[in-house]
Amino acid sequence: MARYCTMCGNPLEENVTVCNHCGANPTATPEAKTPPVQPEPQTPPVQYAPPQYSQNPYPGYPGYPQNVVFVKPRIPGRGFAVAALVLGLLGFFYSLIFFTAAADIGQVLPEIQEIFDEAYSPYAPYGYASTMDARTLVCVVFGIFASMCVMAICFAVPAAKRGYRNPVQKAGLILGIVGTVLYIIGVVLVMTA
Length: 193
What we know:
Layout: E1 3-4, E2 11-12, H1 78-120, H2 134-161, H3 167-192
Antiparallel strand pairs: 1-2
Helix pairs in contact: 1-2, 1-3, 2-3
């Protein structure tokens, strides 16, 4: 009866204590083979590569990275310039109204003064009298709105100092200056009326 190696399965010669092929002891009882414990596969760490830019400047075409997000650069002074433009427009509008009405205000001032005198007449016995001049009130009311011109100048200057010199900043500055000049001329016209 032929004997076979219990490890490799090759035929053995008589009275051999060691297999010529694998070197195992044929008289030993074969042990149950347990599969070797394989380590759990580890995923390699995610490596982020910088975006690859191609020479193709048009998105949607082959060779152009589709997942790149372009962020609009932050420009210092842009907010100041926009604020200067908005305030300059509003202040210029109110100064222009005041300037065009300054010539006609002289006819209306006596009526406005009478309204103040009547409003304070019940309090005259108690020492309260109308100390408000109608001209001063008109100048103060329009001055509140015209102060937007001065604020426009105050916002346009820092925008220019931060390097944001463009038409928005320049328009805000010019409107602020012109509106302030119109308001000053209007005040002179009202006070001399």
